[in-house]
What we know:
The complex is a heterodimer. By secondary structure, chain A is an all-alpha fold. Chain A has helices at about 5-30, 50-70, 75-105. Chain A starts with a helix and ends in a 10-residue tail after the last helix. Helix content of chain B is about 50%, strand content about 0%. Chain B has three helices and no strands. Chain B has helices spanning about 10-30, 50-70, 75-110. In chain B, helix 1 packs antiparallel against helix 2, helix 1 (about 10-30) packs across helix 3 (about 75-110) and helix 2 packs antiparallel against helix 3. Chain B starts with 8 loop residues before the first helix and ends in a 39-residue tail after the last helix. The interface between A and B is large, with 35 and 38 residues.
Amino acid sequence: MDKVEKNMLIGAFATGAVDLALEGYFAYNDGQGIDLRNQFPYVVIHEGLPPVDDWIALAGFPLAVYALGKLMKKPSLVVMSKGGMIYGASDLIGQTVYRMAKLAQTPSATYRVVV
Amino acid sequence: MKNPLKMNPVEKRLLLGGIANGLIYWTDEFAKSQTGYPAELNQKLDPHLPDYGQIASSAGPPLALMLVKRFKKNVKIADIAFGSMLYGIPKLIAKTGVNTAYVEGVKAKPATRFFAPATPTRYTLTQPSNQTMRTVDPSAGKYRITS
Lengths: 115, 147
C-alpha cells in the first residue's frame, strides 16, 4: 500500500470514528432506555434523508479536514479528507436510497369507506 | 477558480467502489424488513458484533474484488476494490462499536425498582376498617373548646 492509499484509509477510518462516536452515544442511551430522537444532532429534517448527525460525521468532518488541509497547505490532509469523503458519500447515498425505499413502501393514502 | 468537485479517473473509480459497497450494505438492511430474508443472516456470533448479513455486505464486496484483482491484474478493478474497502472496513468497525455501545448501555441501565404496596401501619392516614366514624362532642373529653 503506497502513501496515498494509506492516507486515504486513515481518512476513511477517521470519518468512521466520528460516525461511531455519534452513533455510539445514541446507541448507549438507547440501551439505557433514553430516547435521543428529536434531540440535536439526532433530528430528522425529512424522512427520506439521513439524520443531521450523519451529515455532520459523513460530510461535515471530511469537508473540515479538506479545508484544514488546504489552509495549512498539507497535501496529506487533503488526501485523508478524500478517503473520508468516499466513506461519507457512499454511506449518505446508501442511507438515502434506503430511507426513500422505506418511505415509498409505507402506505400513506387514507381510504374513506362510504356506506 | 479550480473546481473542487473535479476528480481524476482514479478518484472516480474509488468513489464508484465505495458507492457500490454502500448500496450493497443498505440493500441488505432494506431486505431485512422484507419477507423471505434468511433468518441466519440476522444472527450474531456475539451481541457486540454485527450480524452475518452486515458482515457479508460490508466485507464481502472488497474481499471478492480483491480476489478478482489477484487473478485478473487490472488497474481499474484494483481501484474499485480499494474504494470498496474504504467503505466496507470502517463501516464494519463502526457497526461493531455501535453494537458494543448498545450492549454496554443495557448493562449500565439502573435496575427497575418495584415499589411494594404500602403495608398499613399505625401511622397510615387511611381509616382502619375496624373503626367507624363517630362524632365526638366538643364538650366531652380532656380538652374543651373554649372559643
